[in-house]
């Protein structure tokens, strides 16, 4: 058998390096409800509550993981928020992460109300958050913007650059319209650079229907896969 030439070995090494890089950047997703260790009990709910939403960050990639229990967070390991580990796959759910908010759908009855999303790079006031559906801007707070659809679903966007929003209260917006740039605004203090995104909708809770925060993770995954594939 003829021994491989140097060129053949070099091409093989290049191919393997490229394959490894592709594997590192290819989207991977942890299961819904699988939170960062020690950050609380998640809800293993694979339901896609909103099947046709637009992913709320204008451009990929985006990275879903905890802002508190990852590097740079108050409960995270040593390191800064821009650490490469925070900007890599797999995604990690953090709905129901330990918080004091009342949350009927969380195992403990309390928890984080939505999902933290890091934009493509660790840069504030650069990457646009966009409307998940067509609707009306019904609230602009100190560090939050709320969009309500004609069906009554409410999407909240937190920690945008609040002094330079693309919308104001009362505006009608189209699906995919720019709302504001992802930043770290937090009522005079600074949080990490991320978008907190949550969904409030009417669902069955026990024997009755209630308007509550619903798990967004699976809906976001579906929307992200459409974004990556170029689907409208």
UniProtKB/TrEMBL annotation:
Alphabetized GO MF terms: metalloendopeptidase activity
Native organism: Lysobacter firmicutimachus
Name this polypeptide is given: M23 family metallopeptidase
Keyword Lipoprotein tagged: no
EC number(s) stated in the UniProt entry for this protein: 3.4.-.-
Keywords: Hydrolase, Signal
Signal peptide limits: 1-22
Residue span(s) of domain M23ase beta-sheet core: 111-200
């Amino acid at each position: 058998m003829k021994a491989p030439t140097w060129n053949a070995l070099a091409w093989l090494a290049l191919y393997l390096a490229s394959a490894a890089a592709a594997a590192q950047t290819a989207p991977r997703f942890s299961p819904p409800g699988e939170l960062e260790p020690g950050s609380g009990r998640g809800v293993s709910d694979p339901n896609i509550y909103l099947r046709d939403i637009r992913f709320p960050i204008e451009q990929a990639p985006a990275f879903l993981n905890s802002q508190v229990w990852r590097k740079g967070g108050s409960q995270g390991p040593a390191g800064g928020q821009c650490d490469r580990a925070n900007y890599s796959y797999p995604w990690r759910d953090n709905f129901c992460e330990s918080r004091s908010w009342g949350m009927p759908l969380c195992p403990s009855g309390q928890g984080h109300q939505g999902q933290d999303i890091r934009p493509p790079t660790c840069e504030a006031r650069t990457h646009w958050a966009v409307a998940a559906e067509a609707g009306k801007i019904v609230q602009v707070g100190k560090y939050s913007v709320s969009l309500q659809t004609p069906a009554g679903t409410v999407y909240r966007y937190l920690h945008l650059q609040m002094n330079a929003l693309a919308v104001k209260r009362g505006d009608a917006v189209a699906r995919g319209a720019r709302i504001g740039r992802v930043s770290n605004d937090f009522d005079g203090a600074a949080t990490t650079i991320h978008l907190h995104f949550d969904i409030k909708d009417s669902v069955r809770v026990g024997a009755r229907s209630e308007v509550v925060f619903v798990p967004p993770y699976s809906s976001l995954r579906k929307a992200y896969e459409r974004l990556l594939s170029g689907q409208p």
